[in-house]
Hints:
CATH topology: Purple Acid Phosphatase, chain A, domain 2
Number of helices: 7
Radius of gyration: 18 Å
Structural class: alpha/beta
Strand order of the largest sheet: 3-2-1-9-10
Number of strands: 10
Strand content: 15-25%
CATH class: Alpha Beta
Distance between the termini: 19 Å
Amino acid sequence: MIYVMSDIHGEYQKYIQMLEQIAFTKEDTLYVLGDVVDRGEYGLKILRDMMLRSNVIPILGNHEFMAANCLTWLKREITEENLPTIDHDRLQGLSEWMDVGGMTTIREFKTMTKEEQDDVLAYLLEFSLYEEVSVNEKRYILVHGGLGNFDPAKELSTYTLDEFIWERPDYTKAYFSDLYTYVISGHTPTLYITGKATIVHAHQHIVIDCGAHLPTGRLACLCLDTMKEFYV
């Protein structure tokens, strides 16, 4: 079976409960559409579990992008002597990351050994910007945010990083003229679209971020073979 999940945001127990609920095995494949880290306490613990599973395919989210940019230089010791060498852009990026929940990831990162830190950073650099899968004669484009500045004639390989991880789709419009191509994304909690913590299906968009970190949110998972929805 092929499953998709997104925006776990450090909710390790929900992640494990979901794997148990779908009875995930080595014969299955799970695509995680980004934003594993930040906000919740155990994003890096989830990443380290994902690293051990060759059948879990990670896709880059904006929170992984910010984490990789900052943790790469934060892992070195910061002293009064080298503090002036940290340029304004890095400090600005750190401030923006912390504003959206990065502090939990920084705290968790500091508890890890240097080898563990290096392994996690190397893993983050392996994340893809998008994936395409075909199931039951349907084509699914898997991406964290959306296809920014969408043009039906535009090749997927020509979209920019920002268009994949930061942009939000127009859920009121079908992007493709055929009836078998779907865009599956996270990034925008469905609570902000419909007011419900359930997967949204609209105009060949499927939105699976059900706000796992929010008080009234849930972690969602979708099986592409059966279109069955799972919630924790």
